[in-house]
Design goal:
45% helix, globular, binds S-adenosylmethionine, 7 strands, Rossmann fold
Length: 231
């Protein structure tokens, strides 16, 4: 599905989120603070928007490895990385976020934007993120959620169910993909349940920050107890 929608993926993100997705990724990137140099893994990296935001917001990141299972999404991402002159700091590889080839504790931070909802088992993905983090590592997960405010929730659900599938089908010419989007958002864990799952996976200092009234949330957790620093 992501191979099919890759050419229009970025355009639809900007249209359907009214451009907010860019600000959400930048805010997620800032969760890593300014310690460095650090190595970052971005799972389900798609067209590499989060690696780009990470390098814009955290100049002390040494390098970012992006993993995605869709070769077409990666192709669009590689073009963007090349155009921005970031090819020496970002490497995009095809792979499965739930079973990566990297050894234990290979990264200082692992990020994932709008990807964990798409993996078959969110807890297994969190286990993999935990395994990949070094002892002082940080996980940052950005994912859609539903607003807690009942009026906002009602309006957002109407937008998800009736507007997104129509615009998504018109622009991407894929009727199924943007219907899947609203169904997967509605079916995904809420912030409290997702934080509990992160704790079950072994993360400490787990937090959730709602974005734009709660239509998305940033989840953060650390591998070791916090010493008061950012990482
Ligand atoms: C909604 S897109 C998010 C892309 C990007 N992170 C962003 O912020 O726009 C979800 C991505 O997850 C990828 N994906 C889904 N399941 C995956 C898996 N098991 N392993 C790796 N990538 C996966 C898809 O190919 C797609 O590129």
């Amino acid at each position: 599905m992501f191979d099919r929608i890759a050419p229009t993926y970025d355009l639809l993100n900007r249209l359907l989120s009214f451009g907010r997705d860019v600000a959400w990724r930048r805010r997620a990137a800032r969760c890593l603070g300014d310690r460095g140099p650090i190595r970052v893994l971005d799972l389900a990296t798609g067209t590499a928007d989060l690696p780009i935001a990470l390098l814009q917001e955290c100049p002390r990141i040494s390098d970012v490895v992006g993993v995605d299972c869709s070769e077409e999404m990666l192709r669009v991402g590689r073009e963007k990385i090349g155009r921005r002159g970031l090819s020496d700091r970002v490497r995009l590889v095809r792979g499965d976020a739930t079973n990566t080839p990297f050894s234990d504790a290979s990264f200082d931070a692992v990020t994932m934007a709008f990807g964990i909802r798409n993996t078959p088992d969110a807890k297994a993905t969190l286990d993999e993120i935990h395994r990949l983090l070094g002892p002082a590592g940080t996980a940052v997960v950005l994912e859609f959620s539903l607003p807690a405010n009942p009026v906002m929730r009602w309006g957002y659900l109407a937008y998800l169910r009736f507007v997104i599938p129509v615009i998504g089908a018109l622009v991407s010419r894929d009727r199924g993909a943007y219907r899947y989007l609203n169904q997967s958002i509605e079916a995904f864990h809420g912030p409290a349940a997702f934080c509990a799952m992160m704790e079950q996976a072994g993360f400490r200092d787990v937090s959730a920050a709602p974005l734009t009234g709660g239509v998305a949330s940033i989840y953060k957790g650390s591998k070791a107890p916090s010493d008061g620093g950012d990482l």
